Amino acid sequence: MTAQPILSAHNLTRDFRVGKRTIRAVDDISFDVQKGECLAIVGESGSGKSTVANMILGIHPPTSGTLSFHGEELPVKRTLLHREKIQLVQQNPLSSLNPRRSIAASLRLALDVHKHGTRGERPQMVQKLLEEVGLDPSFANRSPSALSGGQRQRVAIARALACQSEVVVLDEPTSALDVLVQARILRLLDDLRTMHGLTFIFITHDLSVVRNIADRVAVFQYGKLVELADTEALFENPTEEYTRSLISAVPVVSTEEVELRGRLSKTEAADGGVESPGA
Ligand SMILES: Nc1ncnc2c1ncn2[C@@H]1O[C@H](COP(=O)(O)OP(=O)(O)OP(=O)(O)O)[C@@H](O)[C@H]1O
Ligand SMILES: [Mg+2]
User: Fold this and answer.
1) How far is the CA of 203 from the centre of ligand 2 (A)?
2) Where are the alpha helices (DSSP H) in 167-276?
3) Residue 147: inside a domain, yes or no?
4) Residue 204 pLDDT exceeds 90
5) Which residue owns the Cα nearest ligand 1 atom 19?
6) What is the CATH number of the domain that holds 227?
7) Which ligand is nearest to the CA of 220?
8) Total number of domains constituting the chain
9) Is 60 exceeded by the pLDDT of residue 272?
10) For 80-138, what is each residue's pLDDT tens digit?
11) Within a domain: residue 2?
12) pLDDT at residue 228 above 70?
């Protein structure tokens, strides 16, 4: 018997009106996500990945089809609880962090809104969140603009944790980061997923990232779901020609890079400490 999925999409379709034309960005997509798993969504630019993310978050209502959370249909107008339990981490967290608020204030606001902890407890909770994402407590009083890309992404992840989210939709969360920072953020995400029993929907066009983090992969093309398989099976035996072409485009990791990664994991430190502010 399979467990009830934490999230299900049933025949999701989304059209956009552009002038007199209608674009079908997402075309009759269905999938289930189990609690604790990482489902990657891959596909070329314009294949409908972010549109699905926006529907899951309740930013865009589906044109037709439904989404369910723990077996219950998600309403078009989401409750505070839904907004708390399903969170988004974007490619560029600067656009979702208020530039005039310190990091601590942003995290405290998430705790306030969702009424986690008492007023007296919240400053300490903020410190604990920073610690969980590998940022030094001194980051609390900085503004988002004084952080590197990797550090900002850690703050965005801390905010999702502050909300005690269950499902985190990550839309190209590491695409703007260099390869080493990317590897550290991926490791952090993987650790937090295990520690907090989180469920990830991880959107990326980068299949080498998928290999490292995903349990299953959904392949999108022109708004359709063309293949959905376990990560290993997909790489070993892709059934669709389109998936094969995506896989053959994955860059081969060089021996130097593998060695460098090995050295890094031995001397590992959070990029809060080692990353230069511009990285
Ligand atoms: N708000 C919108 N108005 C009109 N068309 C849109 C809108 N949002 C998305 N689209 C169109 O829907 C299609 C799917 O876009 P979407 O952003 O979901 O793709 P994507 O897979 O996330 O691409 P990328 O990898 O570039 O982020 C595209 O043709 C896009 O132009
Ligand atoms: Mg997108």
Assistant:
1) 8
2) 179-196, 207-213, 231-236, 241-248, 255-266, 271-274
3) yes
4) yes
5) 46
6) 3.40.50.300
7) 1
8) 1
9) no
10) 999 999 999 998 877 778 889 999 999 999 999 989 999 999 999 999 999 999 999 99
11) no
12) yes
Nearest to 138, CA basis, from 156, 151, 119? 151
Structure tokens at 107: 């995290």
Cα–Cα distance for residue pair 111/108, rounded to 1 Å: 5
Choice between 252 and 197, residue whose per-residue pLDDT is larger: 197
Ligand 2 geometric centre to CA of 46 (Å)? 7
- 24 CA to centre of ligand 1 in angstroms: 10
SS3 152: helix
Residue 208's identity, in one-letter code, is S
279 lies in some domain: no
| Index of the ligand 1 atom closest to the CA of residue 220 | 21
Mutate to test the pocket of ligand 1, among 12, 13, 49, 210 (most ligand atoms within 8 A of CB): 49
Range 166-173 average pLDDT: 96
Report pLDDT for 254. 53
CB-ligand 1 contact for 53 (6 Å cutoff): no
Instruction: Say what the pLDDT of residue 93 is.
Output: 77
Reference 199, options 24, 10, 32; nearest CA is 32
Full domain range(s) for residue 244: 7-273
The yes-or-no verdict on residue 255 having pLDDT over 70 is no
Q: Is residue 278 part of a domain?
A: no
59 lines ligand 1 (CB under 6 A): no
